[in-house]
Amino acid sequence: MLKIVKIEWKLFLREPVSVAFAIFFPSLLLLVLGALPALRTPDPQFGDLRFIDAYVSTLVVIALAFLGLNKLPATVATYREKGVLRRFSTTPVSPARLLLAQLAVNLIAGALSITLLMVVCRVVFDIDLPHHPLGFLVTCLLGMLSLSALGLLVAAWSPTARSAGGWATVAFMLVMFFGGAYLPRFLMPDFLARVGEYLPPGVVALQESWLGAAPDPVHLGVLALITVVAGTVAAKSFRWE
Prior knowledge:
It is a single chain. By secondary structure, the chain is an all-alpha fold. It has one domain. It is 74% helix and 0% strand. It has 10 helices and no strands. The two termini are 21 Å apart. The chain crosses the membrane at residues 12-34, 54-77, 98-125, 131-157, 164-183, 218-238.
């Protein structure tokens, strides 16, 4: 299993675009936004916080969404289309281990991305690190698992890598929209903002734990439920070839 994870990690590093977007893009975006003086000024709309303080949780959403909904389904669907999974089924190593390795790579990449983001937050902009570390860690883990389960569901139902990429892009854009990446959440209608609270990877739970409050157990429960349901359906409907 460790050998498979190492190989998948090497393959991930050979894709510069994926590495750049998954690991470096959130931090680069924070640097760009932080270069604007208006976004470094405390604003009553954010509880006298700066825009960049309130936007950090959305940057975490971007990193997790790319890994779970762009990279994972495209890679798995490509492996199936090219017969990689079918070949694995003829060996003592179960093809399921390849899926677990993909999840492990996503977790490693996500951890690197969020760690780098924290360094930029603290060193460059003097943004406090998460005030509720355990809640933030649990939310990140559940957020990554729920998005990965949805990504596997897309891969399971898509006959080709191209169709998987298309459906994954739709899911990715929805998650980014409700996560506040395209439109700040305070500008959304109340109904849309409310819906976004319960969608993976839990932008409100991320923000609450970063600012110091324990994440809402209901939000975490919804993430766990999505992980179990989507993961179970994907496992039962997945075709190895």
